[in-house]
Amino acid sequence: MAVALVLVLIVVGSVLFHFLSPWWWTPIASNWGYIDNTIIITFWITGVVFAAVVLFMAYCVFRFRHREGNRAAYEPENKRLESWLTIFTAVGVTALLIPGLFVWSQFVNVPSDAAEVEIVGQQWQWSFRLPGKDGKLGRSDTRDVTAENPLGVIASDPNGQDDIVVEAADLHLPVGKPVKMLLRSIDVLHDFYVPEFRAKMDMVPGSVSYFWFTPTRTGTFQVLCSQLCGQGHPLMHGVVVVDTEQDYLTWLGQQQTFAQLSAPQKTGSADQTPDKTMASGLKIAPKLETVGSR
Ligand code: CUA
């Protein structure tokens, strides 16, 4: 009796915790309401199955408890029960998988008007690159990474000269415009994750992964690294600021292009490494750099 009661309490407690707990998602700041819906469908299916299985267990523990002289029925096979269980399981698993496939397809099918932004992860900081006036990102290669060219932009590619390089600082994006996020890593696996955008993806050294989203409200959002990437992993934070069009253009005007950043190096002022805090009021850069320059 006590065991059955504990099982019932586990179900009631889990359901109450789910509905009453204060730890729910942060308010969404992108177009990916679909992802929330998919998770809610998953919660419902797994929740109902969990409650049904545990309550059935409680019932069996109570109903078929030990009594003197009772004997268990011996029934090693039951075709009807097995087919029903198979059908129910198949329907449940399909319902769990199908919504995710639809969302995934939308997540990686980028609308043609999306602006490209490159995100570069490295131990243990985030950098960004935006196309310049030509609207095109120049090619890049990890082999071209140096202190003066931290993102490995290929200098011989004319498309890269006007690219805007934001090293270890905040990324700004205009609100309401779709962006295609191109993700690169120049050392180990990282994972770009902004909880409010409901978007994350692994960054794999040697390849470029991508997803797209539209920021739906202005604000400052924290970037987390969501893939264990070494000692500094828990400190690998970044910031995405979603601006109004006006604020975004102001910010963009203050950034340096790849050509400007590589200029001092050509004129020979040797120890003049690019000022990493140039990209306006950046509180996060110094901390990350301490970690990065270990
Ligand atoms: Cu980068 Cu964890």
Characteristic terms for this protein:
elongated, disordered C terminus, Immunoglobulin-like, 294 residues, alpha+beta, 2 domains, five-stranded mixed sheet, 19% strand, binds dinuclear copper ion, 10 strands, 7 helices
What topology emerges from the helices and strands here?
Layout: H1 2-20, H2 33-63, H3 79-108, E1 115-122, E2 125-130, H4 158-161, E3 164-166, E4 171-174, E5 179-185, E6 190-194, E7 199-203, E8 209-213, E9 219-225, E10 238-243, H5 245-253, H6 258-267, H7 285-292
Parallel strand pairs: 1-5, 4-10
Antiparallel strand pairs: 1-2, 2-3, 5-8, 6-7, 6-9, 9-10
This protein binds dinuclear copper ion.
Shape: elongated
Order of helices and strands: HHHEEHEEEEEEEEHHH
**In this structure, how is the largest beta sheet organized?**
5 strands, mixed
Distance between the termini: 60 Å
- Quickly count the domains: 2
Number of helices: 7
Description:
The protein folds into 2 domains: 2-65 and 77-108, no CATH class; 115-263 and 271-278, Sandwich (Immunoglobulin-like). By secondary structure, it is an alpha+beta fold. The chain has a 5-stranded mixed beta sheet with strand order 3-2-1-5-8. The protein is built from 7 helices and 10 strands. Helix 1 packs antiparallel against helix 2 (33-63) and helix 2 (33-63) packs antiparallel against helix 3. It is 38% helix and 19% strand. The chain has helices spanning 2-20, 33-63, 79-108, 158-161, 245-253, 258-267, 285-292, and strands at residues 115-122, 125-130, 164-166, 171-174, 179-185, 190-194, 199-203, 209-213, 219-225, 238-243. Dinuclear copper ion binds next to loops.
